[in-house]
Design a protein that fits this description.
Blueprint: E1 7-10, H1 24-37, E2 40-43, H2 46-54, E3 62-63, E4 85-89, H3 98-110, E5 116-120, H4 126-135, E6 142-145, H5 152-156, E7 160-163, H6 172-179, E8 183-187, H7 192-195, E9 203-205
Parallel strand pairs: 1-2, 2-3, 4-5, 4-7, 5-6, 7-8, 8-9
Length: 212
Amino acid sequence: ELNLPSIIWAHGVIDSSLIPHRDSQYAVPHDRFLINAASRFIVNSDWTKRYFTEVMNSESPILIPNWTQIDTAYVEKPNKYLSRRFVCLNSLEKNKGHNLLINAAAELKLMGKQFSIDLYGKGPLESEIQELINSKGIDNEIKIYPSIKDVNQIYDNAIGVINPSIIDSFGMTLIEGMARKTVPIATKSGGPQEIIQDGVNGFLIDREDSQA
């Protein structure tokens, strides 16, 4: 009645079954109503756009990719690409694929490779992820740290940033890392496939393929 515009900006896609105490019987119809009632509906990737167009029956979402600031005067440290340190900045949740990363790290150790992986984030699976790290005997190679605001210093001290997600609508840490000249490595989980050209500006691997 007030004729007020409403804008929905979808930064991701979450299966309603993953949300605790959310009744999936009503979640999808509720979301569909909000999306189609909005004056403008914005999404962050072609992958997300296809999801909402095909699954949620949304009409013509507007695509505006996520962005990050770039320091055009930034120069990487002299020994950056001699580093054996990799970082992963993902919440410690089921769909973020930490199991894949840990299994890959275990295989690297068996091959005699020297490396370290720093996991930054928090979430409900922290203790479970730590137990898996311990069980694989790679607790010296992989460490878990809390989230921090100044992510640039994390990328500046690493050769690569890894996103092992099962599903990801974009991949914010990938463009953050690339802005600091840090090599992105990600699974073919949706959004990352629109950011990375495999073998050109980073590396893409199949989901759940720890050997890759």
